Amino acid sequence: MKKFTLEEIAAACGGKYVGDESLKSTAISSVERDSRCIKENSLFLAIKGERVDGHDFIEKCYADGAVCAVCEKAPQNPTKPYILVDSTLEAVKKIGMAYRKKFDIPVVGVSGSVGKTSTKEMLYAVLSQKYKTHKTQGNLNNELGVPLTLLAMPEDTEAAVIEMGISDFGEMSRLAQMVQPTVCVLTIIGCCHLENLGDRNGVLKAKTEMFKFASENAEFVLNGDDDKLSTVTEVNGKKPIFFGLDRKNDYYAENIQNNADGGVLADLCFGDTKLSVKIPAIGSYMVSNALAAVAVGKLCGLNDEQLIKGVEAYKTVGSRANVINTEDYKIIDDCYNANPTSVMASIDTLVNFSGRTVAILGDMKELGTNELEMHRKTGEHAKEKGVDLVIAVGPLAKALAEGSGGKWYADIDSLLPDLKSLLKKGDTVLVKASHSMQFERIVAFLKG
Question: What residues have CB less than 8 Å from 261, skipping those under 6 apart?
Answer without folding.
Answer: 282, 323, 330, 353
